[in-house]
Design a protein that fits this description.
This protein has about 250 residues and is α/β, with parallel strands linked by helices. It has a domain of about 140 residues: P-loop containing nucleotide triphosphate hydrolases (Rossmann fold, 3-Layer(aba) Sandwich). About 35% of the residues lie in helices and about 25% in strands. The strands form 2 sheets. The protein has a 6-stranded mixed beta sheet with strand order 6-7-8-3-9-10, sandwiched between helices. Strands 2-1-4-5 form a 4-stranded antiparallel beta sheet, with helices on one face. β7, α5 and β8 form a beta-alpha-beta unit. α6 packs across α7. Pfam families: ABC_tran. InterPro entries: AAA+_ATPase, ABC_transporter-like_ATP-bd, P-loop_NTPase. This is Multidrug ABC transporter ATP-binding protein. GO terms for molecular function: ATP binding; ATP hydrolysis activity.
Length: about 250
């Protein structure tokens, strides 16, 4: 399967801290890849690098066949950030229809996306009056109107109720079946089984990459939580062994 994203020997330094340590990974086209790891593991920094808004120390990131950050990618990538990226003094409908117009989408299609993210009842509500979860859904709707080839979502289900989380994942799956590539970050391990492939990251290093089944098989367990913990233990033991050799 062709790759939508290729990451090779990527190192990112912020201030005096190395956030990503020479990592390599790939994201296949037309599938849902989960980027999973605890808070502070480097997920958001990696995502910022993929969408071209992060300075890197070394390494390469290729997105849809072009260097990350290329001007040609702006209309081909949809990006949902953890921080809401909508106009607070406009209604949900005004925000979504505005962004839709920039990408040639009609008002009726934009309104359908509002319904899809569960904001039909709040469509005429000013964004600053929304709850935190509703605010995030408004941002997600604006990312979806780009009709992207690649959709990058940074923890899109955080703060959402279980029913809406299920509905959002159904939407994500429908997009993938339509040929869209999705990269979705999360620290919620039970969302991992919804993905076609996973990239597990901790402390700026890749612990494992592959299908959920392949990762659990490698760790010798059927439980992804346990698999992650065992892979963390392997990483710690490997680091300790290297340290002893250096000494």
């Amino acid at each position: 399967m062709d790759s939508a994203i290729e990451i090779r020997e990527l190192t990112v330094v912020r201030g005096r801290r190395t956030v990503l340590h020479g990592i390599s990974a790939s994201v296949p086209r037309g599938a849902i890849t989960g980027l999973l790891g605890p808070s502070g593991s480097g997920k958001t920094t990696l995502i910022r690098t993929i969408v071209g808004v992060q300075i890197v120390r070394s390494g390469t990131v290729t997105v849809l066949g072009l260097p990350a950050g290329s001007v040609e990618l702006r209309r081909r990538i949809g990006y949902f950030t953890q921080s809401p990226s909508v106009y607070a003094d406009m209604t949900v409908r005004e925000n979504v229809r505005y962004f839709a117009s920039l990408y040639g989408m009609g008002a009726k299609e934009a309104d359908q996306i509002i319904t899809d993210v569960g904001l039909a009842e709040q469509s005429r509500q000013v964004v600053r009056t929304l709850s935190g979860g509703q605010h995030s859904r408004a941002s997600l709707a604006c990312a979806l109107v780009t009709q992207p080839e690649l959709l990058v979502l940074d923890e899109p289900t955080v703060g959402q109720d279980p029913v809406l989380r299920e509905e959002l994942w159904q939407r994500f799956r429908a997009l993938a079946q339509g040929g869209v590539t999705l990269l979705i970050s999360s620290h919620i391990m039970d969302e991992a089984n919804r993905c076609d492939g996973l990239i597990l990251i901790r402390d700026g290093a890749i612990l494992a990459e592959g299908s959920p089944k392949a990762i659990t098989s490698r760790a010798g367990t059927d439980d992804l939580d346990q698999a992650f913990l065992r892979l963390v233990q392997e990483q710690s033991e490997s680091t300790e062994a290297v340290d002893k050799e250096v000494v």
